[in-house]
Amino acid sequence: MDDTERKKVILDILQNKVSVISGAKLAEITGVTRQIIIKDIALLRASGYKIEATPKGYTMQKRKGKRAVFAVKHTKEDIEKELSLIVQNGGRVLDVIVEHPLYGEIKGNLNIETMNDIKRFLARMKTANAKPLLTLSDGIHLHTVEADSEEKLRKIREVLKEEGFLNL
Fold it and tell me: What does DSSP say about strands 140-147 and 66-73: parallel, antiparallel, or unpaired?
């Protein structure tokens, strides 16, 4: 399979067959290394395809509903509570963004939409001994949140405000 054919296979899988697929699985399907898949994904992105890298693998960016960006502030210990409030009220946390004094905007894709996603995220953070991005900005960060209606986004804003997370 040549480069062009492989990229077409990757796009077909992402657009039509799965919601998320790992780089290792794409490599297995196309008969190349994961490093070549990473390069192919970068080239496809440069060509304008909206491919997201998530902790679970690659996915084609598909808008499911309405979006809002929430500016929040809290400690590392409140991550689970904050994410749970969003998910329990019908939101999907697409990313986390912090403003760094040297590098500018730093963004991490989250794609959290279930309580199990939250548990996996927290477990990965613990086993990797990784610090969340909010530690770079005194707890202040942004989340892009998606929901299937403006009403759900309003409800999420309300509960985040009630719990003291909104950084207005």
Answer: antiparallel
